[in-house]
Design a protein that fits this description.
This protein has helices spanning 24-34, 50-53, 71-82, 94-106, 121-134, 158-186, 207-228, 267-279, 291-299, 303-313; strands at 5-8, 62-66, 86-91, 111-115, 140-143, 147-149, 189-196, 236-243, 246-247, 265-266, 284-287. It is α/β, with parallel strands linked by helices and 324 residues long.
Length: 324
C-alpha cells in the first residue's frame, strides 16, 4: 500500500471526538465550559452574527495567511478582507491562490498573493523581507499550511514522512521566525496556528501527522510562555486553533457513534469561529467547542479507561469493549 495524500494546505483530523453540538445543547455546553476554559466556541451562531458583535479591524491591519488557496485558509483570507484588513495570500498552488485574490478584489478588498513553498526556509525568509520592503509590517500571521495522509506507519515512504513533518511542523517554525522579530521590534502582533484534534490525542494510521501536530502544540505553548515572560512582548498575542473534521473535501466523513447527532462543519463556519476568537485574543480555540475539554478530561483517566471511552466513540471501526 502506497502513501495516499488525502489533501494539502488545510488542517483537520477525523477522531473519536469529531462531534458538534447544535441548538440548545450547544448553548448549554458553551455556558458551562466557558467559565473554566478559554477559547470555547459553538460552531454555529446563526441568530446573532459575529459581524453584529465586533467592530471592524483596526485601519491598516495586514493579515498574512498561509495555505490561502483552499479550505479554511481561503475562507480566513476572504473574511479578513471583508472586515477591512489587507490580506496577503501564500500558497503553493498559483491557480487556486490567484482565484482567491481575484474574489477578494472583486469585493473591493485589498489583497496580494505569492506562490511559495513554506517548507523552504530560505524562500520564506526572503519573501518576508520583500514584503516588509514593498508593503508594510504584518500585523497578523495565520500559519495554516498542512497536508494529511492516512496510512499505517509501515506503508509510508521515508520521503513522504519527511514531507509531512516539514509541512505540518517545520513550516510553522520558518513562518514564525520570519515575522516574529519584526513584531517584537514593534511590540505588537498576533500569531495564529491552525492545529488539529490530532495534536491533542493519538490517531491510528496518522502517526507522522499526529507527531507533527503534537509538536505544533508544543511550539505554540512554548512561544506563548516565552512572550509572556518578557515585558517587551506582552502585547504580542498567540492563538492555537484545534479543529476536528471540517468539510473541505479533503477528509472522509466522520464515522463515530454519534454521527446522527453531531457532524462536521463547513470551512466558512470554522473561519467565522476562528476570527471571532482571534479578535477576543483567545489563546486556544476548539472547534467543536467541547472537543478540547473532553480530550483533556479523557487524558486524565487511566489508560485502560481511556481506551474504553475511545473505542466506545469509535464503534464503527473498533469494539468499545477492547482492553488493548
Amino acid at each position: 500500500m502506497d502513501l495516499a495524500v488525502v489533501g494539502q494546505w488545510g488542517v483537520g483530523c477525523c477522531t473519536s471526538l469529531d462531534l458538534r453540538y447544535s441548538g440548545a445543547a450547544s448553548q448549554t455546553v458553551f455556558h458551562l465550559y466557558s467559565g473554566c476554559c478559554e477559547g470555547v466556541h459553538p460552531a454555529n451562531y446563526e441568530e446573532l452574527t459575529w459581524r453584529d458583535r465586533f467592530k471592524p479591524l483596526k485601519p491598516g491591519s495586514l493579515a498574512q495567511v498561509t495555505g490561502a488557496g483552499h479550505g479554511i485558509g481561503r475562507e480566513l483570507a476572504i473574511q479578513f478582507a471583508e472586515l477591512g484588513a489587507t490580506v496577503i495570500c501564500w500558497d503553493n498552488d498559483a491557480r487556486r491562490n490567484n482565484a482567491v485574490i481575484d474574489e477578494i478584489r472583486q469585493k473591493d478588498g485589498e489583497c496580494y498573493g505569492y506562490t511559495i513553498d513554506v517548507t523552504a526556509r530560505e524562500q520564506v525568509a526572503a519573501l518576508a523581507l520583500r514584503m516588509r520592503r514593498q508593503l508594510t509590517d504584518v500585523t497578523m500571521v495565520v500559519s495554516n499550511a498542512g497536508i494529511l495522509t492516512c496510512a499505517p506507519i509501515s506503508h509510508l515512504r521515508q520521503d513522504a514522512i519527511l514531507k509531512l513533518i516539514e509541512t505540518n511542523l517545520l513550516s510553522h517554525f520558518w513562518v514564525i521566525q520570519a515575522f516574529l522579530p519584526n513584531m517584537i521590534e514593534r511590540r505588537h502582533g498576533h500569531i495564529i496556528a491552525i492545529n488539529s484534534s490530532a495534536g491533542l490525542m493519538p490517531c491510528a494510521d496518522m502517526i507522522p501527522y499526529c507527531a507533527a501536530k503534537f509538536g505544533l502544540k508544543g511550539l505554540m505553548d512554548s512561544i506563548t510562555e516565552e512572550l509572556r515572560l518578557d515585558t517587551w512582548t506582552k502585547n504580542i498575542n498567540t492563538t492555537s486553533v484545534y479543529l476536528a473534521t471540517v468539510a473541505t473535501g479533503m477528509y472522509p466523513q466522520p464515522s463515530h457513534r454519534f454521527t446522527t447527532w453531531y457532524t462536521e462543519i463547513t470551512a466558512k463556519q470554522a473561519a467565522k469561529t476562528i476570527i471571532e476568537g482571534v479578535r477576543k485574543n483567545y489563546r486556544n480555540i476548539s472547534i467543536p467547542s467541547f472537543m478540547k475539554f473532553l480530550i483533556d478530561l479523557n487524558n486524565l483517566m487511566p489508560f485502560r479507561i481511556r481506551v474504553i471511552f475511545t473505542d466506545f466513540f469509535n464503534i464503527r471501526h473498533r469494539g468499545w469493549f477492547c482492553f488493548c
